[in-house]
Write a structure and sequence with these properties.
The complex is a heterodimer of chains A (about 160) and B (about 400). Chain A contains six helices and six strands, in the order ααααβαββαβββ. With about 160 residues, chain A is α+β, with helices and mostly antiparallel strands. Chain A has two domains: about 5-45, Arc Repressor Mutant, subunit A, CATH 1.10.10; about 60-140, 2-Layer Sandwich (Alpha-Beta Plaits). In chain A, the strands form two sheets. Chain A has a four-stranded antiparallel sheet. In chain A, strands 5-6 form a two-stranded antiparallel ribbon. The two termini of chain A are about 35 Å apart. With about 400 residues, chain B is α/β, with parallel strands linked by helices. In chain B, strands 2-8-7-6-5-3-4 form a seven-stranded mixed sheet, with helices on both faces. A three-stranded antiparallel sheet of chain B has the order 9-12-11. The model of chain B has no long low-confidence stretch (mean pLDDT about 95). The chains are: A alpha+beta (about 160), B alpha/beta (about 400).
C-alpha cells in the first residue's frame, strides 16, 4: 500500500462522512485522483461499508448482546466455511470469527432481551448438526467498540500558548 | 541605619537584557478570553501513547523512584545509540558520548555553557526558537543573528553564515526542522554549512527535536555528515516525536570531552533526569514507532489543510516541510505581525504567535501551529478569513 492510499483510508476511518474534496485538501492530491482511488478501494473490497457507530443504549433502544462460543465438528469435504455461512445468514448474528484455542467459532448475537437471545441460540444455533457445544456470555457493558471509547472522556488540557 | 531593602537591586545585570519570552504575553492575553481557538501551542495535541504511560505506571508500581546515573540509565543510552546507528549510520558510545537530560531546553543551556567563554560569539540563524539568544546571554556569550529568508524557504545559506563569522565565533546553533518556520535542510544544504564550519573551525549545536516530523523526505542528522561528528553537539528529545512534552526528557550526543563537560554542569544543576520519564523513553524507543508514524501522518494531513487554507485567505504561505508550524506572511495586510495577532485574537478569538517574537527577522510573519484538531483548524481558518475580510 502506498502512503497516499494509507492517508485516504485513515481519513475515512476517522470520519466516514469526509468528502472527497476534503480528503484532497488533507492529502494534497487532486480530487479526481482521490475519487478514483476510493472507487478502486470500494471495488476491490478494501472499503467494505460506511456506517455509524451507534450507542443504542444511549439512544434509548436498549439491545442485548451476547458472545457465543461454539465448538463444532467438521464433516468430510466441508470446512469451517460451510458452517460459518450458515451462521452469518442470521441477521441476529452480528459477527462470526474463527478462533484458535479452546473453541472454534465466536459469534456476537444481538436481541431485544436476554430471553430472546437465549432462545435464538437454543433454537437456531445449537440445533445445527455440526454444533457440538455452545457457551453464551451476555455483554453487560461495552466500554470500547471498534476503537471508539463509548464513555465521556475527561478533557486533557494544554495551555493555550506554549513555546 | 536604613533597613528598607529593594530586592530588585539583587537581580543580576544580565536579567535586564533578557526580557521574558514574547510568547508569554499571548498566553496572558488569551487566558482571559472565552472560546478561543489556539494555533499558538508548540506541543502535540496527542496524549502520550498508552503503552508509554503504562510502562511508567508499572515502573512506579515496582518502586523505581531513585536517582539514576548522571548520564541517565545505561539501557536508555544503549537504545539511543542503537537508534542512531540504524537510522543515521552514526555511532555514539553509550558510555561516554550520550547524556540524558531534562528536555532539550536544559540540554541547550548546558551545551552552550559547556563551550562558551565570556565574549565568545555564537551564531543564531533567525527567526529562531525563543530560548537560543537568552541561553547564549546567560552563558556570557554574544549572540550573533544571521537572517534566513523566505526566498530560500528559511534555510541557512553558507554565504550568509560565512559573513557572520569572526575570529571570536565559537559556535553555530541550527534547528531543522525549524520552530517557528517549519523549514528543513536536506543533506546537500547541510553539507554546505558543514564545509564552512570546518574551514572556520567552529562547533555546531544542532537542535533536532523535530527530526521525526519531517514530511516527504528523510531527515539528515548533522553529525552524520562527513567530518562533523567531532564538532557537533546534537540535541534531540521525546517531546515532539512521542507526544511526551510533560515528561521533560531529551539527550545530547557529542564527542566525549564535550559530554564530559556538559555532564559536570548537568550533575550539579539537575543531577539526573527523572527516572520515570527515562523508563517511558526506553519504551518509546523500543515500541513507539507505529504510534509515532500514525501521529506524523495526521500532522501531515493537517499541514496540507492549513497551508492551502492560509493561501486561499490570501496569507501567502510557503510549504514548510517539517515540525508542526505554518509561517504565513501578513505583509500584504499592511499590519505588523503584532497588530495582526492582537487584533485577530480580540476580534475573532484565534491565537497565533507574531513572527517578531522569534527575532526581528520574523516580522511580517505569523506562527500558526497545526498541532490541533482538524475541526479546530477549519474553524480557525474561517475566523481568520472573516478577519482578513474586514481589513
Amino acid at each position: 500500500m502506498d502512503i497516499e492510499t494509507r492517508h485516504i483510508l485513515e481519513c475515512l476511518e476517522q470520519d466516514a462522512r469526509v468528502t472527497h474534496e476534503e480528503i484532497a485538501t488533507l492529502t494534497g492530491l487532486p480530487v479526481e485522483d482521490v475519487s478514483k482511488r476510493i472507487k478502486e478501494l470500494e471495488d476491490i473490497g478494501v472499503i467494505r461499508k460506511y456506517r455509524a457507530i451507534v450507542d443504542w443504549d444511549l439512544a434509548g433502544d436498549e439491545h442485548v448482546y451476547a458472545i457465543i462460543e461454539l465448538k463444532v465438528t467438521l464433516e468430510r469435504n466441508l470446512g469451517y466455511q460451510a458452517i460459518a455461512e450458515r451462521l452469518y445468514k442470521f441477521p441476529e448474528v452480528r459477527s462470526v470469527r474463527l478462533l484458535s484455542g479452546q473453541y472454534d467459532l465466536s459469534l456476537t448475537v444481538m436481541g431485544k432481551t436476554m430471553k430472546e437471545v437465549a432462545f435464538f441460540v437454543a433454537e437456531k444455533i445449537s440445533t445445527i448438526e455440526q454444533v457440538q457445544h455452545t457457551t453464551t456470555h451476555f455483554v453487560l457493558k461495552t466500554y470500547k467498540e471498534d476503537g471508539v471509547i463509548l464513555q465521556e472522556q475527561e478533557e486533557t488540557s494544554r495551555l493555550v500558548v506554549t513555546p | 541605619m536604613n533597613d528598607r531593602c529593594d530586592p530588585e537591586r539583587f537581580v543580576a545585570d544580565v536579567m535586564t537584557k533578557v526580557p521574558p519570552s514574547g510568547i508569554r504575553k499571548y498566553f496572558d492575553l488569551a487566558s482571559g478570553i472565552e472560546g478561543v481557538i489556539s494555533l499558538g501551542v508548540g506541543e502535540p495535541d496527542f496524549v502520550t501513547p498508552w503503552h508509554i504511560r503504562e510502562a511508567c505506571i508499572h515502573s512506579l508500581e515496582s518502586g523505581k523512584t531513585s536517582y539514576t546515573s548522571n548520564f541517565g540509565l545505561l539501557e536508555l543510552r544503549e537504545e539511543i545509540a542503537k537508534l542512531y546507528s540504524q537510522e543515521h549510520c552514526v555511532h555514539y558510545d553509550p558510555a561516554s558520548e550520550i547524556l540524558v537530560m531534562s528536555g532539550v531546553s536544559e540540554a541547550l543551556d548546558v551545551a552552550i555553557r559547556a563551550i562558551t567563554n565570556p565574549g565568545d560569539e555564537i551564531i543564531v540563524p533567525q527567526p529562531a526558537y525563543v530560548a537560543y539568544v537568552p541561553s547564549v546571554m546567560f552563558a556570557g556569550g554574544v549572540p550573533v543573528p544571521v537572517i534566513t529568508h523566505l526566498e530560500n524557504n528559511f534555510k541557512l545559506t553558507a554565504e550568509d553564515l560565512e559573513k557572520a563569522i569572526t575570529p571570536r565565533t565559537k559556535a553555530l546553533i541550527i534547528n531543522y526542522p525549524n520552530n517557528p518556520t517549519g523549514a528543513t535542510m536536506d543533506r546537500k544544504d547541510l553539507e554546505a554549512i558543514a564545509k564552512v564550519a570546518s574551514e572556520h573551525d567552529i562547533m555546531v549545536i544542532s537542535d533536532e527535536v523535530y527530526e521525526c516530523l519531517t514530511y516527504n523526505g528523510k531527515h539528515t542528522c548533522f553529525s552524520s555528515i562527513e567530518g562533523m561528528k567531532d564538532r557537533t553537539i546534537l540535541l534531540n528529545g521525546f517531546s515532539k516525536a512521542y507526544a511526551m512534552t510533560g515528561f521533560r526528557l531529551a539527550y545530547a550526543l557529542a564527542p566525549s570531552p564535550i559530554i564530559n563537560a556538559m555532564m559536570r554542569i548537568h550533575q550539579y544543576c539537575m543531577l539526573c533526569a527523572p527516572i520515570t520519564a527515562q523508563v517511558g523513553a526506553i519504551e518509546a524507543l523500543r515500541n513507539g514507532n507505529e504510534e509515532m508514524q500514525r501521529m506524523i501522518r495526521d500532522y501531515d494531513r493537517r499541514r496540507h489543510l492549513i497551508i492551502s487554507g492560509l493561501n486561499r485567505i490570501g496569507l501567502e504561505c510557503y510549504e514548510p516541510k517539517g515540525a508542526f508550524y505554518a509561517f504565513p506572511s501578513v505583509k500584504n495586510t499592511g499590519l505588523t505581525s503584532e497588530e495582526f495577532a492582537e487584533r485577530l485574537l480580540h476580534e475573532q478569538k484565534v491565537v497565533t504567535i507574531p513572527g517578531d517574537v522569534f527575532g526581528p527577522a520574523g516580522e511580517g510573519f505569523l506562527r500558526c501551529s497545526y498541532a490541533t484538531s482538524k475541526e479546530q483548524i477549519v474553524e480557525a481558518l474561517d475566523r481568520m478569513k472573516r478577519f482578513v475580510g474586514t481589513l
